[in-house]
């Protein structure tokens, strides 16, 4: 089964309508099939290959006004990533990917509307946080950085290539 962000049927219906990529009849048929199968609309839509995780995440970002970010795990500094313990990052599907010069912490989440998760993470790292949305797949790849950074730190201690640098950790796309 494909993993994807969870979106309520009502919100998904609004996303599909707003995107203008899906005819009203297709949305109504999706809603009907969802009811008949007793499955959430997003799951039926994925099964029918109407869109993928990245497309759904972009539609949600456009709808909600939450900036969309595409993380590059190789460019996330280990000391930034490790400000959130791996267990918590996995539980809440959240990656701290940058701390700017002003001390603002940039946090990517699969579900930035999860108020409880945001509150919990802010208690761990502080409230000076800007929250972004990232796709499930992108968060999953970034979470692997917890294991990659262990190897990268060992390589740097031995003065081998691939030491962390000062590259930007993500491409941020602000909704229009």
Fold blueprint:
Elements: H1 9-19, H2 24-37, H3 41-47, H4 53-64, E1 68-71, H5 78-81, H6 86-92, E2 94-99, E3 105-109, H7 115-125, E4 129-133, H8 136-143, H9 145-157, E5 170-173
Parallel strand pairs: 3-4
Antiparallel strand pairs: 1-5, 2-3
Helix pairs in contact: 1-4, 2-3
Summarize the structure in words.
The protein is an alpha+beta fold and 176 residues long. The protein has helices at residues 9-19, 24-37, 41-47, 53-64, 78-81, 86-92, 115-125, 136-143, 145-157; strands at 68-71, 94-99, 105-109, 129-133, 170-173. The strands form 2 sheets. A 3-stranded mixed beta sheet has the order 2-3-4. A two-stranded antiparallel sheet has the order 1-5. The radius of gyration is 18 Å and the shape is elongated. The mean pLDDT is 85.
Number of domains: 2
Low-confidence stretches: none
Order of adjacent strands in the largest pleated sheet: 2-3-4
User: What string, H for helix and E for strand, traces the elements in order?
Assistant: HHHHEHHEEHEHHE
Give me the secondary-structure category: alpha+beta
**Overall pLDDT score:** 85
CATH architecture of the largest domain: 2-Layer Sandwich
- Provide a count of the helices: 9
What overall form do the CA principal axes indicate?
Answer: elongated
Question: Would you count the extended β strands for me?
Answer: 5
User: Portion of residues in helices?
Assistant: 40-55%
Largest sheet: 3 strands, mixed
What is the C-alpha radius of gyration, as a whole number of Å?
18 Å
CATH fold-level name of the largest domain? GMP Synthetase, Chain A, domain 3
Please report which band the strand proportion falls in: under 5%, 5-15%, 15-25%, 25-35%, 35-45% or over 45%: 5-15%
């Amino acid at each position: 089964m494909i993993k994807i962000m969870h979106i309520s049927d009502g919100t998904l219906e609004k996303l599909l309508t707003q995107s203008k990529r899906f005819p009203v009849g297709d949305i109504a048929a999706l809603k009907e099939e969802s009811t008949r199968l007793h499955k959430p609309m997003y799951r039926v839509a994925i099964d029918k290959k109407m869109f993928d995780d990245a497309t759904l995440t972009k539609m949600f970002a456009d709808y909600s006004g939450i900036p969309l970010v595409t993380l590059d795990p190789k460019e996330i500094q280990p000391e930034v990533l490790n400000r959130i313990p791996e267990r918590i990052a996995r539980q809440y599907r959240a990656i701290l990917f940058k701390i700017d010069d002003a001390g603002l912490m940039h946090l990517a989440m699969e579900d930035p509307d999860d108020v409880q998760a945001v509150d919990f993470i802010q208690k761990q790292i502080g409230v000076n946080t800007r929250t972004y949305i990232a796709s499930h797949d992108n968060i999953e790849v970034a979470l692997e950085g917890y294991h990659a950074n262990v190897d990268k730190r060992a390589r740097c201690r031995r003065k081998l290539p691939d030491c962390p640098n000062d590259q930007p950790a993500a491409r941020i796309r602000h909704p229009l």
